[in-house]
Amino acid sequence: MTDIVYAGDKLLDSWLNLTSTLWNTRLVSSHTYNEAHVMGLLLRHSTQANPMTATDLIRRTRLLKSQMNKILTSLESRGYITRTRAELDKRMIFIRLTEEGEAAYLQEHEGVEAILGQLIDRIGVDRALTVAKELSEITEILDGIVPTANKT
User: Do 80 and 43 meet the contact criterion of CB atoms below 8 Å apart?
Assistant: First the structure.
């Protein structure tokens, strides 16, 4: 086995272990993993000038359009998001987290913060920031390598 193949296998194994641990562990109880992910993205984006669209969320989460529609319908039915048609381009629909949605997300996120606090206590702030930066860089590189599937 070459060094490149070995390194690739180790990276993939670590990535899959991390994502399956997060995916299979119920970090939140009143939302699905994907609902919590979308709500977090909307909250972190809420300070930006332009609101997010479903297309933006699909691009960020890499979910299928049908999956995103199901998530948004569920969140909207619970009063956690609003969808507003753009005035200039009626084809665009902006998605915003409501006050109720923000409160629900932050309440659930307290448990996640406690877990992250324990993790950072064990690995240290500097190492956590270094790993986060490296994972972001790897994700950006992968975005340039892996073709985006047709999101229908």
Answer: no
| 37-68 pLDDT, tens digit each | 999 999 999 888 788 999 999 988 989 999 99
The answer to whether residue 150 is domain-embedded is: no
- The reply to whether 151 falls in a domain is no
pTM greater than 0.85: no
The conformation of residue 87, written as its DSSP 8-state character, comes to: S
CATH assignment of the domain containing 14: 1.10.10.10
Q: Which token pair is 44?
A: 């972190």
Residue 54, domain extent: 3-145
Residues 119, 122, 123, 128, CA torsion sign: positive
Provide the b/e sequence for 95-118 (b: ≥16 CB within 10 Å): bebbeebbebbeebbeeeeeeeee
Contact status, residue 45 vs residue 52, Cβ threshold 8 Å: yes
* Tokens matching residue 31: 């939302």
When divided into structural domains, the chain yields a total of 1
Asked if residue 130 has pLDDT above 90, the reply is yes
Instruction: Give the rounded percent of residues in the chain with a pLDDT score beyond 70.
Output: 92
Q: Is residue 132 part of a domain?
A: yes
Residue at 152 is within a domain: no
